[in-house]
Specification:
Strand order of the largest sheet: 2-1-3-4
Strand content: 5-15%
Number of helices: 9
Shape: globular
Radius of gyration: 18 Å
CATH architecture of the largest domain: 3-Layer(aba) Sandwich
Largest sheet: 4 strands, parallel
Helix content: 25-40%
CATH class of the largest domain: Alpha Beta
Length: about 250
């Protein structure tokens, strides 16, 4: 049998590879949502950043949030996670500061996948971004995740979609998943119809992965979201041995 040893004196539990920084928000997180632990085939550990509301992060872009995000990341690192993810694409604003503050990999925003997607698509193909609020998504967010040139990105917001706006942005307390799926699919179909050169779609919002399959069925394109990023991250920090025969 192998011999195990503690990695730090303050650690009382093990086996949680990914820690997730999550907003102080109140709405149902259905399966597939980053805020629902059953969305992942591995354990995750959550850390609510209590100072970070939807309004404060998305609309106000409050720079004072850097400190609590860094503090939350350090706490997750001290609790033994091997990597840290976010749970809102707008956390991109603090990607660099949080990554510099800890010694484990950090992926706060699904938008981090855009530079990778650009490298794997034919030149000239556009990347669609379906976001919670198109008006609030700025060049600053893109630069923070390594996208210096946002040309070639097609942005479609859901702030005008009634169920999404009321359930997520206004936190009404209930969520009709069928209506929301229809809104997200309609946004994707409109984007694809008006952009024949679309090569893939990125779902910025952590509430949208439950609808990724429906989007893909509708537009027949690769769909990237928070869960594709987090699963990729987990695979890198917890490699598995291969079993088979020759």
């Amino acid at each position: 049998m192998p011999v195990y040893s503690v990695t730090r004196k303050s650690q009382s539990w093990y086996g949680t590879p990914v820690g997730i920084l999550i907003l102080n928000a109140c709405y149902p997180c259905i399966p597939g949502n980053v805020g629902n632990a059953t969305s992942f085939p591995f354990p995750v550990r959550y850390k609510e950043v209590s100072e970070a509301s939807i309004n404060g992060l998305i609309n106000r872009r409050d720079p004072a949030l850097i400190e609590p995000f860094v503090r939350g990341a350090k706490e997750l690192e001290a609790e033994g996670v091997l990597a840290i993810a976010g749970a809102c694409g707008f956390m991109a604003l603090f990607q660099r500061e949080v990554a510099e503050a800890v010694q484990v990999p950090v992926c706060l925003s699904s938008l981090l996948q855009i530079p990778f997607i650009r490298q794997i698509l034919p030149q000239g193909k556009k990347i669609g971004v379906i976001t919670a609020n198109a008006g609030a998504l700025t060049e600053r967010h893109f630069r923070a995740v390594g996208v210096e040139d946002s040309s070639g990105l097609v942005i479609q917001g859901l702030e005008g979609s009634k169920e999404f706006r009321e359930a997520i942005l206004e936190e009404k307390g209930t969520l009709d998943s069928e209506r929301m799926e229809q809104e997200v699919v309609q946004a994707a179909e409109a984007m694809a119809a008006s952009n024949p050169g679309l090569g893939s779609i990125v779902l910025e919002c952590s509430d949208l992965p439950p609808f990724a399959r429906a989007v893909q069925d509708a537009v027949r394109l690769p769909v990237f979201d928070f869960n594709t990023m987090i699963r990729h991250l987990q695979t890198a920090v917890v490699q598995q041995p291969y079993q088979g025969y020759m």
